[in-house]
Protein: Branched-chain amino acid transport protein
Amino acid sequence: MQTWLLILGMLVITFLTRYSFFAWPNLRFPRLVEQGLHYVPVAVLTAIVVPGMLMPAGEWALDWHNAYLMAGVLSILIAALTRNLLATIAGGLLFFFLLRWTFGQLPL
Structure:
């Protein structure tokens, strides 16, 4: 019963936040809030990706054999140098699988 109440509560909150933009089209956020909202996607993506890079097996792995960490650092460098999303994704994935294969974590 508690699970269903939780799901129902999340449904109501999600509906109200999305519907409010249609119900009140003249609703505007203060400028400071609008500026802060630009950082939300970066913050959410960072919160999802970084724990997986630093703790791939559930505990800290800050060494050279952590392919997630090494590929993540290289992806950050590629993104900073090229500003190209496709190059960043392709370079990061290629380096990640190369490291996994090199460290014997992937079959031939």
Q: What stands out?
A: Residues 1-55 form one domain. The mean pLDDT is 92.
